[in-house]
Structures are given as C-alpha cells and as structure tokens.
Amino acid sequence: MSEQDPSQRHKKGMATRRSVLGDAHVDRAVAMTTDFDEPFQRLITEAAWGTVWSRPEWDKRQRSIVTIALLAGLGHYEELAMHTRAAMNTGASRDDIREALLHVAIYAGVPAANRAFATVKRVFAEIDAEEAKQR
Fold this sequence. Notes:
By secondary structure, the chain is an all-alpha fold. It has two domains: about 1-55, no CATH class; about 60-135, AhpD-like (Up-down Bundle), CATH 1.20.1290. The protein is about 80% helix and about 0% strand. The longest helix has 25 residues, at about 110-135.
C-alpha cells in the first residue's frame, strides 16, 4: 500500500469510519470534537480508519471480529459495545461474535469473556428492541 498524504488518508478514514460505525455515531463524535481533542480525532481517523481498517488484506467483517476479541480481552467494554453495534454494518454475525468471545475466554481469561458476554448480550437486546420498534 502506498503512502497517502494526510488529507487523503483522512478522507479515506472518514469514509471507512462511517461505513463501519454509521453516520449517526460519527456525526455525534465530530459534533463533540473540541480544539483540545481534535488532534486525537484526526489521529484515530487517519491511523485506525484510514490506514489499518482500510487495508485490503482483511475485509471489514474480519477486522470487526478481531477488534471485538481484542477489546473484550483488554476489558474495554464501552468500546466493545460500540464495536458490537458496528459489527452489524460489517457483515459479522452474532455467531462470529460468540466465537470471538469464546477465544477470549481461552486466551485472555474467563472473567474477561464473562463480562464481554454480558456486554454483548445487553447490546443485542438493545438492537432487538430497536428493530422491534421499527416493525
């Protein structure tokens, strides 16, 4: 992958970020950005979304599954909830997420997986309730 200039990497990152997290989430994050955290927002947009998430070697579904496992293993449950919702946009299934959390239990510990399962079940219940309202 060739080096992109920062403005191109930011544009690509923002497009990828929107496709994974959804416009509403990204719009909220952008609206809440201040002069203080703008450099951080630019960093994650360019590095995480414009470089890593935009690489062609893995698709977004694969990246979602790995991200969920890493966040669960590290105990970052708020981010896990966000990426569980995002997984619905990447083609990752509930079965994929369950399998990732089973790996977490073995490789990062049962307590981390236990809390992750509880977090993901809560998110799934919220998604199901939102979908039921739309019917």
